[in-house]
Amino acid sequence: MRAEVRSGRESLLAAADALFYERGFHAVGVDLIVARAGVAKTTMYRHFSSKEDLIVAYLDRADQRFWAWFDASLDPHAPPDQRLAGLFDALANLAASPSCLGCAFQATAAEFPEPSGAGHATALAHKEAVRARLRQQAADAGAADPTLLGDALLVLLDGAFALARMYGPDNPAAGVGAAARSLIDASLSPAPRRRARR
User: pLDDT-based confidence at 81, cuts 50/70/90?
Assistant: First the structure.
């Protein structure tokens, strides 16, 4: 019985995952989700009290996938500045993938602009976590102003995702790694100068 329940929930999440990411939230109704999942509508409401609850569960999965990608893209053996730059090389590859349709959290904020809504709040929490992580990576890399660099890199990251959604795989985000390196190199704290001996 427990495995059967898990299967219904997973089927619904898999269907919602594909449909929400491809078509957005307002264009996808519960009837389409349950049809794609191959379950009854009663199964849907047994696991999720509303479509909003399903959206939040979808975003939780998207958040887990993002952080798995983020962590896998950081080379633990590279110097901190190169590790951070390498993240954006990985981003260029991701943005060029046909499976990349942009950022689920950008799309959520656009469709649910009211800050008090569960979808918007979940998307904002994700972005704040990404912002904090980029600032920490910038600090580890030796940036003179980690806050400024981290925020600038967030602009690059979100811009790359927006370009992937707009243009498809053949998009201008191919240069995001080089752009990140320029920002990182320009932001590094200068080495202290030795005082000349008299």
Answer: very high
